[in-house]
Amino acid sequence: MVRSPRQRERDEESATDADETESEERACPECESADLVTSNGSNEIICEDCGLVIEERNIDHGPEWRAFNHSERQSKSRVGAPTTQTMHDKGLTTQIDWKDKDAYGRSLSSEKRNQMNRLRKWQERIRTKDAGERNLQFALSEIDRMASALGVPRSVREVSSVIYRRALTEDLIRGRSIEGVATSCLYAGCRQEGIPRSLEEVAEVSRVEKKEIGRTYRYVAKELGLEMKPVDPKEYVPRFCSDLEASEEVEMKATEIIDTTAEQGLLSGKSPTGFAAAAIYAASLLCNEKKTQREVAEVAQVTEVTIRNRYQEQIEAMGVY
Fold it and tell me: Could you tell me the pTM of the whole model?
């Protein structure tokens, strides 16, 4: 009997559903627990409660060699570093080391050193084949430089590089400076990863003005359809309190003030950094750890007037006079 392609597709879907249902309903025959885990080392399905080995798999997807510590794994591994979006070639090209030594650590002769210098020079030249790749290399190096200055994790650099590549693909760079687009992508990456960095902080490490960063960021976010949630002031509280050397009690009180006042709608239209700074100032007074408005303003990079205005609104909402 010859089945039509549509019938074969339905049979495959029903078989897949049956396999998923079987794996969901599977339980340990010994203790009837559903907490089953797969061991990475031996490819076995094990009951997490009683330790019974339920199934042994013959296919091992790992390497054929064995290693018992990090140095052995490094010496036996035959693969390079993982690909990364933070480099224009995704880290796939060869890099010639600047140490003029051979594999045994011996110094090279003057003739070999000159030869290696020429090879390095041409290696750097052929890594970028045209102006577009050179511009991408410059932009990604700028993102890496600013990310290092801001102290953000590597995940933010990866996300920012992906956003910049998307902007380049959509031809959003035309008519704008490379530094401006790179900085706006870094700011967008910080927001997407939940790493709070204000526009003022990003502008400090950038070579473009804050106004241009904000304008470019809004344009890139709109054109690429980036879904950005409003920044929560509570995300700034731990870092500001750490810089002010405030106690954990002040941090918890500031978070409570932000929650209470935000529920009453005071956060709408306000700067999150200024709102967080005022809450920390109010919390320090309530906890008898007085911090001056100037100290808080310098850490949060806002004006003392902003702190005073937000502080008055918050204590009125809290019913503290």
Answer: 0.67
Residue 85 φ/ψ, nearest 5 degrees: -85, -5
In terms of domains, do 244 and 195 share one?
no
DSSP secondary structure string for all residues of 122-165: HHHHHT--SHHHHHHHHHHHHHHHHHHHHT--HHHHHHHHHHHH
Detail the residues annotated as belonging to a binding site for Zn(2+).
Answer: 28, 31, 47, 50
Say whether both 179 and 208 belong to one domain: yes
Range(s) of the domain holding residue 283: 233-318
Please check whether residues 212 and 288 belong to one and the same domain.
no
Query: Which strands sit side by side in the sheet containing 44-47, from one edge to the other?
Result: 36-38, 44-47, 53-56
pLDDT in tens, 212-236: 999 999 999 999 998 888 888 998 9
- Annotated binding site, which residues? 28, 31, 47, 50
CA-closest candidate to residue 240, choices 282, 209, 182, 212: 282
Q: Sorting pLDDT into bands at 50, 70 and 90, what band is 11? A: low
Is 50 within 8 Å of 33 (Cβ atoms)?
yes
The gap between the terminal CA atoms of the chain, to the nearest Å, is 86
State the Cα–Cα distance between residues 160 and 158, nearest whole angstrom: 6
